[in-house]
Amino acid sequence: MNSFRKRSRRDFLRSGLQSVSAVAAATWIGRADAQSVSNDRFELSIHQYSLKKLFDEGKLSTFDYPKFVKEQFGFTNVEFAVEFCDALRGDYKKCDALRESSLQLGLKHRAMLCGAEPALDVASGQERQSALADHLRWCEVAERLGCEFIRVRASTNGDRMQQLDYATQGISALCDALSDSSLSVLIENVAGFSRDPDWLVELVSRVGAERVGLIADFGNFEGDMYEGMKKLLPHSKSVCTKSWEFDEQGNETKIDFVRMMRIIEESTFRGCIAIEYLGDDPIAGVRKTARLVRR
Predict the structure, then answer these.
(1) Are the beta carbons of 155 and 119 closer than 8 angstroms?
(2) CA torsion angle for 174, 16, 111, 39 (degrees, to 10)?
(3) pLDDT attached to residue 40
(4) Type and span of the H or E element at 81
(5) Which residue in 4, 38, 42, 64 has the fewest CB atoms around it within 10 Å?
(6) In sequence order, what are the residues at sequence separation of 6 or more whose Cβ sits closer than 8 angstroms to the Cβ of residue 33?
(7) How far apart are CA 17 and CA 235, in angstroms?
(8) Partners of residue 216 on adjacent β-strands
(9) Which residue from 52, 73, 70 is spatially nearest to 61, judged by alpha carbons?
(10) What CA–CA distances, in Å, run from 233 to 28, 92, 158, 214?
């Protein structure tokens, strides 16, 4: 474990991401549109799941993904998911080449979503150790890519309070292992008890707010999603939208983006707002979601 931390920190410091001016995107979305949400407080990024259909159909690879995002949408922040990154696991040359390519394009790698199984909050201590080892292997990939965050889950079913204990143990162990790393750990509200904002905030309190943060996802709540966002945002270091379909006025049909963005604006949150489109037309859907966030 110590060798992992030392190597990761040295590699990250030597070749970490640097600020690069944005390059104009050759699409109708336009540079001004793409950056209009960007200021000292907010930036747009894209979740890799937004383009899942293109990956599944073999029309896009993870190696081409950052460049595709820059050319199609004008974004300068991209996020990854382990589901699409098998070719990078254990292959540092590929990780380094992808990071260098993105740097040349003025792109930043923000986060890696690690939904690996077994989960960090499984009941068995032995399985939690296995989950920790697997997450750390993905953390190595995320660090080589220059990511800022590793995005993890606490979503195993079971007794509410027992799962809180198991999640505290599993995620605390991950935070301990990454104590010398440049990566920060974020828990997402995604399934199970993590859809309950009160449970998730209590988990942060138990692990330690100085050690772990949240990623607040628009669409993953039990109960009132707007009240849920208000509870998560004080502990959130990233925000993730959700979108599926749009009406004739360009509004998302399941989530009131105007209301959500007002809640974010009135909170203390600052950082990336990630686009996660889950409909049938990835390119058009991402563009519509970005326009809605800006509006």
Answers:
(1) yes
(2) 130
(3) 80
(4) strand 77-81
(5) 64
(6) 74, 290, 291, 294
(7) 25
(8) 239
(9) 52
(10) 33, 35, 26, 8
| Burial state string for 220-243 with b = 16 or more CB within 10 A and e = fewer than 16 | bbeeebeebbbbbbebbbbbbbbb
Nearest to 95 by CA among 80, 83, 115, 75: 80
**Considering only 10-24, 36-50, 120-134, 262-276, which range has the smallest mean pLDDT?**
10-24
The pTM of the full predicted model, rounded to 2 decimals, is: 0.85
Rounded to the nearest integer, the mean pLDDT of the chain is 88
DSSP state of 89: T
pLDDT exceeds cutoff 90 at 136: yes
- φ, ψ of residue 89 in degrees (nearest 5): -70, 120
Alpha helix ranges (H) inside the chain: 2-15, 31-35, 52-56, 65-73, 92-105, 125-145, 160-177, 197-207, 225-232, 257-266, 282-294
Which amino acid is located at 28 in the chain? W
Q: Write out pLDDT tens, residues 5-29.
A: 444 444 433 333 333 233 333 333 3
Rounded to whole angstroms, the Cα distance separating 79 from 47 reads 5
CA atoms within 13 A on the CB side of 45: 23
Cβ proximity of 71 and 102 under 8 Å: no
pLDDT band at 243 (very low <50, low <70, confident <90, very high): very high
- What distance in Å separates the CA atoms of residue 188 and residue 192, rounded to the nearest whole number? 11
What Å distances lie between residue 282 and 48, 70, 120, CA to CA?
11, 15, 31
